[in-house]
Specification:
Blueprint (H helix, E strand, L loop, with lengths): L2 E5 L2 E4 L4 E8 L7 E7 L5 E7 L6 E3 L7 E6 L4 E6 L8 E8 L15 E2 L3 E6 L1
Parallel strand pairs: 2-11
Antiparallel strand pairs: 1-3, 3-8, 4-5, 4-9, 5-6, 7-8, 9-10, 9-11
Length: about 130
């Protein structure tokens, strides 16, 4: 088990950038694939991006490809989501999550993730 805390959300104009951070503690951080999800109030939580334990493989939904970059630093127990060219439709609460499974093909299955952060709000104004 690992505890996760997100930070870095805020208010930004369309076209701007934010970097979200996810700090892990209480477990072996490099044991987990790390994923980012987002949720709009009243709607389901959706997958955004994931990165494998060794950082070799990543997965992104089509709507963020070329704009978002997921990364991690296992020595610091940190994962990141760099978000560029933000659009109003990116507005959501963003969650960091940990997945103990091995293989990028499990990245989009939310029930594979065993630990979740509290979320951080991202608001993109037009």
């Amino acid at each position: 088990q690992v505890q996760l805390v997100e930070s870095g959300g805020g208010l930004v104009q369309a076209g701007g950038s934010l970097r979200l951070s996810c700090a892990g503690s209480g477990g072996s951080f490099d044991y987990y694939m790390m994923g980012w999800f987002r949720q709009v109030l009243g709607k389901e939580r959706d997958f955004v991006a994931a990165i494998t334990q060794n950082s070799i493989n990543t997965d992104y939904i089509d709507s963020v490809k070329g704009r978002f970059t997921i990364s991690r630093d296992n020595e610091k127990n940190m994962a990141y989501l760099q978000m560029n060219s933000l659009k109003p439709e990116d507005t959501a609460v963003y969650y960091c999550a940990a997945n103990p499974k091995w293989g990028i093909l499990t990245a989009r299955s939310q029930d594979q993730y065993t630990d979740w952060g509290q979320g951080t709000q991202v608001t993109v104004s037009s």
